[in-house]
Amino acid sequence: MYSKDDSSFGNEESCLIGRSSRRSQEATKHSPRRTKGRLSLSPRRPSAEPTKIGSNDGGDRSVLEWFRQLRATFGNKILIWIVVSQHLAKGLVLFYMFSTMDYLLRSYWVSGPRLQILSGIAFMPWVMKPIFGVLSDMCPIMGYHKQPYILMATLLGIGAFALLCANPVTDAQGKYLPLEERRLSLSSVVLALFTCMLFVTVQNLLTEARYSDLLRNQPDGAARMVTFILFGKNGFELIAAATVGAIITRYGPHGPFFPCLIPAAMFLPLIAFNFLGERKVTREDVAESYASLRRQGYGELVMLACVMLACSSITNGIGFKEGHVLAAAYTGFISTMLLVVLFGVTLTPVIAKFTVYSIIQASLAVSIEGGAFYFFTDTAEQFPGGPNFSPVYYTTVLGVVSNAFSILGVVVYWLYMRDWTFRSLLTLANALHMTVALLQTFVFLRWNLAMGISDKLFVLGGTAMLEVTRQWMWMPSLILTSKLCPAGMESTMFALLAGCASAGYTMAKYIGAFVLHELNIRPVGAVNEGHQFDNLWKAALLSATCPLVTLFLLPMCIPNARQSEDHLSLTPGDSVVKGSLWRRLRGHNDNLDVDTDNSDTGSTTESSDTVKGS
């Protein structure tokens, strides 16, 4: 079925925005010009603001006024940059890549388990985000922290997109070309996909860091900026979903990479004229920044980022070789356990617990995408009696539905669930998600047909429900992540925490590849390969039930606090390693007061110096 699990790698902008604006609001909330009282995570609109968008009083004029105020607050240049970076590159380009990657790998006769491993390698840049953050913070080039790195990533991305465009894999009749007639080998294709993802990841991370800084100085404009970024991104994702199926059908799996070239090339003039608005720093600025970062435990974060990179590189390096599925899975498991231990003992307790939970939860979301992709997209000749979904239905129809219900999930969350406790919402969301996933095993057993429900209708309904529950799982996790990022280190710390989740999702692909391999689910798109899916329901059942473990971890790792409360937030200057098990074993006394968790009061293990009282 259509899955957006991988898109979880790139959905953190709303919390980074909210975090930055909330920091500025808290710093000035006692000003006589501001309303007293607790500020919610979502920045509030000033009371003197004109008519809201879409109101009956304002109509089109209110929309124009809203955009005029957005321009007045932030300027045209940064808004143009965000259109290219967040709307086009992260919205359009990333969706095209997600949708066409499996079709491209399939054209090289890659088996289901190996397809998962290769796609995990292509997504490795999301695991590398902490390293990119460290390089940007610690190693400015010619006085600039961000634009030189974006420029290098852009040039690499343009080259990679051009190579993929120049590598047709189908003939005029839509049939696969022989491998010897193609310009790129499978290894070259995977490397090009990795490079394209590197471009998207680097520009996205550093753009987020830039507008996070802007919102720290312009908190009143945060609500407009959130709306501008998210609506634009979702809008271009819908455009991509509506067109990608037709492009693949008409031009082949390499077709969607042609429109990806345009946003990548647009970065060049924007960088040349500094549309990002980055200020050149002096050596004194860099030295002062180094000193501040060292006080907050930056050395330990660099160590964790390097270990994460090493573990991912070793695992993916083994998985890249043909026939090493089992070795890659074992290596990935050991690497994941190493990350769990290191993050658990190195970071301050409240952050360590959440990080351990994030890694384990993501790892247990066992992916069976490689087998399911062939199950749904094999033709009637390849899988008689199968769903036999066309590229238009599998990418466009399910993609549009997935995006629409993703928005619905966020709206329902915002209206009814934003004040729930983290534990209660995550417990409900995980339970519902597992229930819906269990029902999805019906399609692999063909029980839906026995009940008179067509494959298209059954998968459509399942996709919609899974997307809603996925948002209910994702939103509170993002909010908790934003609360645990100390001021001044939002970008690096958020990249590290997001990188943990990405590492977990990559591990889930390797576990899934191992399961598919052991259950002899190894389709390649051959004629009459329906027997390859006989055990797919077993893999789906395992995938649906593994997250049960996270329900038992919730009381131990997730604070029983309301999402709207601020007492979990770290104050400016806090160290992210204060009171960690590693520091205590080395004899450091950080005055960490340990309170017993109380389900009624919502207290959690926290430090009087590290965690701000509510």
TrEMBL record:
Query: Which family is annotated?
Result: Belongs to the major facilitator superfamily. Folate-biopterin transporter (TC 2.A.71) family.
Quote the PANTHER family the UniProt record gives: FOLATE-BIOPTERIN TRANSPORTER 1, CHLOROPLASTIC
Compartment(s) of residence: Membrane
User: Residue ranges under compositional bias (Low complexity)?
Assistant: 599-614
Q: Which InterPro entries does the record match to this protein?
A: BT1 (IPR039309), MFS_trans_sf (IPR036259)
Membrane topology designation: Multi-pass membrane protein
Pfam families, per the entry: BT1
Keywords tagged on the record:
Membrane, Transmembrane, Transmembrane helix, Transport
Q: Which organism is it from?
A: Perkinsus chesapeaki (Clam parasite)
Region called Disordered, residue ranges:
1-57, 592-614
Membrane-crossing residue ranges in chain numbering: 78-97, 117-136, 148-169, 189-207, 228-249, 255-277, 298-319, 325-347, 354-376, 396-416, 425-445, 494-516
One Gene Ontology cellular component annotation?
membrane
Q: What is this protein called?
A: Uncharacterized protein
